[in-house]
Amino acid sequence: MTTYVLGAGASAHVGYPLTTALGSDLLNWMKKQTRFDLYAPTARSLEDTFGSVANLEDLLTEMVNSVLAYAADTSERTASRTQFQQDYFVLTCALQERFAEIRENPAHAYEQFCAHVVSPGDCILTFNYDVSVDRELRRAGK
Fold first, then answer.
1. Which of 10, 51, 84, 99 holds its CA 20 to 30 A away from the CA of 116?
2. CB 27 within 8 A of CB 46
3. What's the pTM?
4. Span 92-119, mean pLDDT?
5. Residue 3 neighbours by CB under 8 Å, 6+ apart
6. What does the chain look like in DSSP terms, one character per residue?
7. How far apart are CA 123 and CA 79, in angstroms?
8. Angle 39-50/77-103 helices, nearest 10 degrees?
């Protein structure tokens, strides 16, 4: 049995952004969407509140911290807490939709890796957000 470790960047060939650019990629994608009315205004609101955030994990952490900071408050800060919660929900929905869109891209490197390198019983440890390698493993019958 062989263990393969796929680090950050292994899915770049599919079109997934690196973690350090995932936030800005997602917000830019959201601003271009017309199907769902909340994506573009939410992206602009997040940039107005948090500035240019390239790292999505940093943005999500800031959003959660903001909600927690307002949790004990009453008064007008309740509206801010509710807005952060809504923005968080919209952002996570957008992330799922964005990844579903990218997932349709061909994954040639994973296809070759799964068909010609990986053997049944091998272990693959990945630090990537996507499931492209899983799809190609399934296609290769592994």
1. 99
2. yes
3. 0.81
4. 94
5. 122, 123, 124, 125
6. --EEEE-TTTTGGGTPPPHHHHHHHHHHHHHH--SSTTHHHHHHHHHHHH-----HHHHHHHHHHHHHHHTT--TTHHHHHHHHHHHHHHHHHHHHHHHHHHHTS--HHHHHHHHHT--TT-EEEE--S--HHHHHHHHTT-
7. 47
8. 120
